[in-house]
Design a protein that fits this description.
The structure is a single chain. By secondary structure, the protein is α/β, with parallel strands linked by helices. The chain folds into three domains: 182 residues, Aconitase, domain 3, CATH 3.30.499; 107 residues, no CATH class; 110 residues, Aconitase, domain 3 (2-Layer Sandwich). It contains 19 helices and 13 strands. The termini are far apart. The chain binds FE3-S4 cluster. The site of FE3-S4 cluster has 12 residues, from strand 9 and helix 16.
Length: 424
């Protein structure tokens, strides 16, 4: 790999032994992927994926301690994924005990380390760091060192930034040293599409279901989606961006997509159109029957498949301000329709702390509260990722949450009915 004079100097230890080790790790990581060079991270801020103080993550804390003791700070301020716990989210006594004593017992310690390393602000915990309320929004062409899969796919596809699907430690290292290896989605060739996906549905496809279908088919390849602009339009407005946030998270988690192009809509597709297609591109056609097939293929791993749901999580990835407002309207209307005043299943909506702050300033906030829905900054996946919560019958319309936990997927419409009527 070719290194610049500055990069070589870091590797040779001119900025200390620890930075040299960090650089060496990044170079070795790049060489494993045939990277030709290291390129500068150009975004204003970074985003880290590791937000949770799990007791078993000692190597991470040791690495952070070494970096901090040598006065190393992240080259950029950063945001970080959502916190794993929130006292507002209903838990049993036992769950609470397990969380605090055995699982996230290093949370305060780790948050202190993050603050010292360069956390943007005290409450910069969210996976939707790119939202305007949070302010970590990369520009088109920016090179990033991120690894949260839902944020990477959004930054690459909707914002036109460039980032590989890194691991949690690599994102910290890239942020500290300020360089990342040049390969994969950082290159023009790596951003070309392997698949054309044709949307032939009779109505706007559910974002999380469509993303799931595409992710499971193309896995880590780049899809070029044709026909979705019929439903989303040709402008990246609030509605289209929200749809693509949820769609992208499903492609990234049900498969391993790091970049997609939407014909006539996303920045590179608008500029380059079909020139983005590789030779010998494969084709996948999605119609109503295909979406139904995908929906029907999801396994239900609850012990009692007919159990009444004990909890509903919505907002994985975190909801936008507009989503919170729209859901407030929908829940109110449907509660009225079914003659109820409160939701019939304990429900948590999740969003970034900065979005929640803005939402609290609107008159939607007391209206949502009066439906009984709880608003939280938590990561539902971190909450559920333990045997105690894993046993609970939880429902969600997030295909990422369905994939990684025992929660059961329903479409948005089915969720509304269950919450407001008490069943389907
Ligand atoms: Fe975000 Fe946690 Fe879901 S990081 S995408 S809320 S799994």
């Amino acid at each position: 790999m070719e290194l610049t004079k500055q990069q070589k100097a870091i590797l040779d230890g001119e900025k200390g032994e620890t930075l040299a080790k960090v650089m060496k790790t990044l170079v070795m990581y790049g060489e494993a992927f045939d990277a030709t060079k290291m390129v500068e991270v150009t975004s204003e801020y970074n985003h880290l994926v590791t937000s949770f103080g799990l007791g078993v993550m000692d190597p991470v804390y040791k690495l952070m301690d070494t970096l901090l003791s040598e006065g190393v700070k992240s080259g950029q301020k950063f945001t970080v994924d959502p916190r794993p716990l929130d006292p507002n989210v209903p838990t049993t006594f036992l769950q609470n005990l397990v969380f605090k004593l055995f699982m996230y017992n290093k949370q305060d310690f780790y948050e202190d380390q993050l603050n010292k390393l360069g956390l943007l602000e005290k409450d910069a915990f969210t996976c939707t760091c790119y939202m305007s309320e949070v302010g970590n929004t990369p520009k088109e062409g920016d090179i990033l060192s991120w690894s949260e899969s839902s944020a990477v796919v959004y930054a690459n596809s909707v914002l036109g930034a460039r980032c590989n699907r890194n691991s949690g430690i690599i994102d910290i290292m890239g942020s500290i040293v300020g360089y990342v290896p040049y390969f994969g989605l950082l290159t023009d060739e790596g951003r070309k599409a392997d698949w054309v996906v044709r949307i032939n549905t009779t109505k706007k496809p559910e974002a999380q279901l469509l993303g799931s279908a595409i992710g499971m088919k193309v896995m880590e390849d780049v899809p070029y989606v044709v026909g979705l602009d019929k439903w989303l339009g040709d402008e990246l407005n609030e509605e289209a961006c929200t749809y693509l946030k949820d769609f992208g998270a499903a492609t990234a988690s049900n498969g391993a997509v790091g970049l997609y192009h939407i014909d006539n809509l996303t920045p590179e597709a608008k500029k380059l159109g079909k020139k983005l297609l590789k030779k010998d591109v494969k084709e996948y056609v999605i119609d109503d029957a295909e979406l139904q097939r995908v929906y029907d293929s999801y396994p239900v791993i609850w012990k009692d498949k007919n159990a009444k749901p004990k909890l509903c999580f919505m907002g994985c990835p975190h909801m936008s301000l507009q989503q919170l407002k729209d859901w407030t309207d929908t829940i109110e209307e449907n509660l009225k329709k079914y003659g109820n005043s409160k939701v019939q299943i304990p429900t948590v909506f999740t969003a970034a702390p900065a979005v929640i702050k803005k939402f609290r300033e609107t008159d939607y906030f007391p209206r949502l509260q009066s439906t009984g829905i709880i608003l939280s900054y938590i990561c539902p996946l971190m909450f559920m990722n333990n045997p105690l919560c894993g046993k609970m019958p939880v429902i969600t319309s997030s295909n990422k949450l369905r994939t990684y936990t025992s929660s059961r997927y329903y479409t948005d419409e089915e969720i509304v009915t269950q919450l407001c009527k008490g069943g389907l």
